[in-house]
Amino acid sequence: MTTIIPNGLSEDSEIQDVSEAVAQFYERLPEDFRARWDAVQDHDPATLAQRVERDFDDHPEERREILCAYLAQRLGYSWLFNRRQTLLERPLWDLLEPEHYTQLGAQEIELLFLIATSSRKVRPALEPRAALSAIVLWRNGDEATHARATEILKTRPLPSDEDWLFDLVRVLAKRAVDLRVESRRRLLDLLVLQHKAGFNSLVGLAIGLYFARRYGSLFGSTKRANLVVSCEKAAADYRPRMQPWLQLAADATVAGRLTMPWLEPLMNAAIRHETDDARRERYRAYHQGRPYRVSAARVAEIYAAPLRLVRQGDAHMGAAMLYDIDTMWDSNPGRAKDLLELLIAETGQSKGDRGARLTRVIEAVEVVDPLMERLIALYVVTFDLRLTAISLTRRLRDRVEWSKFGLTDADVDLYLMSADYNQPLKGQRVLYAGVVLEHVDKDAAALVHYFRTKRHTANSVTGVIQNFATPNEWLATHVGHSPFVDRMFHQTMQAFERFSRERSHADKVLSMLQAAEEAKSFDEVPDLPARSVLRVAQHARHKALLSAALAGAVAGGIAPATAGASAVLDAPVVMALTAEVCAATCWYFGFDPADDPQLPVLILAIALSGATPPSTEPVDVHRQLHTFMVRKSLILAALGQGAYRAVLGPTLASGIGVLRERTGRVISKGRLVRMLRRDAEGDWSRRLAETANLYALPVVEGIAGATLNVALMYDICEAAEAVLIDRFLARKYPDWKRTW
Amino acid sequence: MVSLEQIGVMARAANGNADAIFDWVASSDPRRDHTLRRGGDVKLRIGHITDIHVPSEVQLLERLKDFVNNDSITDFAYKISAIPNALMHTYAGARDLYTTILRKTLLGMRRAGVDHLAITGDLAHCGLETEFLEMQAILRVTGWWDSGQMSVVPGNHDRFNLYERFAREPMEQFFDVPSTRNPRFRELPGGVVLYEIESNADRIDDRHFMEDLFPNTVGRIYPEELDFFEAQRLRWAGYRVITLMHHHLSDDWYDIGAETILGSLMGPVDGAQSLMDVTKLVDPNSVFLHGHKHDVMVPDYTLGAHPVSCPGGFAESLSVNFIDVTHNDEIVITQGKVRV
Fold first, then answer.
1. In 10 A of CB A105, how many CB atoms?
2. Contact predicate B202/B181, CB 8 Å
3. Tell me, what's the ipTM?
4. How many angstroms away from the CA of B272 is the closest CA of chain A?
């Protein structure tokens, strides 16, 4: 083909070029909504329908957007005052009102059909705008239109998006609006249509939302709990005009074998008020299996009254509940188990809440009665992961006749082995960092690995204190750091360490391991899983942290009242605690510190300097601890005296230095100092400081004292665990290369 | 003592009521009964679970403290972003419980008659060896390991190690997975083929600018992956194609978070449209199974002509999807939630 160019020149062109140009024009439209809005203005509906059908057959989203934009203009929407999303959705919602619908001509109604049929075939449900268009036509169209729309609504369900469906229910169920349309075109009829088409899940959800709108809380809207409560209220507030709704709920539930929890009260009501015997029997046959998905708490709520009667000794009620449990065995075993537990808890004589009563009954049971036998079987069927369930099944498995419940020994074995974390892992080996380890020891090995490779320096808080610059003009600085005090500190620490080393903790550790059912004798410790030992050792950590926090809080809290002198009072406690933790932790891992007197010092050195301490000589390590203690006490004492600037100044300066370095010296030193000084010298800041001295200082001091002690103790415990796990693994696995 | 393999054999023979383990939540076919038992018209059932994030017991808090010491600003930001990652895990302090829940779930899939298990990434939480080993043991106990009935693709958490920028032991040491630019097909019974791809952006040759500050969360489809599919399209003609990937394809099914607005992180995978287009060469309605976003996708969600499945982060939602291929080659996605 030859394209004629106006100026007389010509060039060859293929016909495909022209169609490509057209295609490009249309393809550009979806990218630019404004252009599309302008473009559709000039089209009459017939041409638009033709073009859209031809060019956007495989682009349903664009097709809907173009047609909705046209309808928005037709209904008087302005580009200026609305968001794009409003323009693309609101017109369809408006058209649900008959007075808006009557504004449309025949051609425009065809546009609505184009939207209504625009869902892709792969979509299980109608696209929301397609669904709305179909409903508009079904509700407001003439007979022929209504019939065509009915066919669309029969082929696919409405969207199951809860918020969208709730909006639809709200709009369609407005009584004033509903009365203006024919009786066979109301919300109920729409849902009946969907039910007859087999879309029962959708109907079940929509009915729940319908009652939520009528009986639910204003803000609960689509939440499941709101739906349940609303349907309960609706069932209790039965009125004859509700009957069709209850029937529809029950029909959909039975036909779709629905399990939504809010349908249960509606089914109860439907059975109660149904006059047709055959229908009622059909409802009852499904309902007695109680297939509805409810939580254990909800089961307790539903059966509150019968359980109370059982507690009062009503044997008939107990038998009835047992019948219910057996009926639910196949249809809802989870609920059967929850109910049986409640029933068993009510048979117990002890006091307390149901959970505690059940636990006591389970722990005391020796004879397997029919109730207990059922419960154990249900634990296996539902794969209950609670420890009480597992231990009960393990204890009494030989007394249960499993075949009665369709279970085999293999089912029970599988349950007991899989539900217990440790059971299947016993004896299993893995390769970690080139060493074959027991599976349960892999995390301990990783812990050592990451401590060794990541802990290069002392930990954050401890590190800050160690780097704290003590003012030279203070007398306390000179006294604290004097050789005499240093020597005294060293000797005292040695005494504490000797004392701790010579105390055996074997019995204490053994009793804790026995309580945790990990070991029977202390000699078994080396063979235990490292994670089990570590868990028991954590008790020691918690105790040490608590003691350190208490000592620090007391010493810090009274510092303002003792002119700062009390800041050193906790030093002996911390020293003793340090020595004790370093020595005692060894026992948890099966080591006697008397066999290796260097071990506690090594732990302390690592806690204060990181994984590779510069020295592990006791005198050096003790000096480091001494320095830490002096600086910590000076900080607390100075804070107690209100010498904030003296304390915070040097520390802040080093912090600011780091900040300036990392931010590329954006903030100049002089500017920063000017800013700080301007704020600190103001009248308001003086008043604030006075108030703080009086009321807040003891609290701040207490917290600071506790924090600093806890930080130190935490580091010591952590270092102790890393070092001792390393040694523990080296003792257990000859291939494991010890780091420390 | 019973070995893991023996337990695995027992697990493969497990049967029973799947509805005792899972609650039925929703289905893409509104005509189906509310049950997770396998229907008579199903010729293949795939169990889809994603974003498992098995945590470790490496005392996260302690290690994270080490991170914030003595670092550059960029490293600091990287590691700070790792802290909520480590601490916000629903079962961060309860690894044993989480492991048993996972075992229950995977045994429940046996009961539900699942023929093939699809795990779409993020098996590990911090990319540590111990987490991979833990997941391996879970799969052994439940009989999926070495069964030939399992497909795994890597997620972003499997590729970055929280403690070491580049993992000492990559995921390949523990799982047989496809890698970036090297996808693969896996034929399943019933005329179904799985297209397994790694959707993480290449961390070495194609690093996203934000990854200096935050761990790898960007997904990308590379031309090599498209070419690979195209080259084999004749071989798989007539099959139903199910693509397994980690990153999501679209963002209209969840609320957009700050992480997407700042630095285009956690957005849909780059090249999603090309991927969908290329799979159409074999199956015009090919199915996509993915994870990454922890929101739960409704099972009747479709993107263009493609059904998509994303049961969301397992720790938060405890959800799994069952993808049923019927004798009519229809795909039905049913969602279940583990009863705990």
1. 12
2. yes
3. 0.91
4. 17
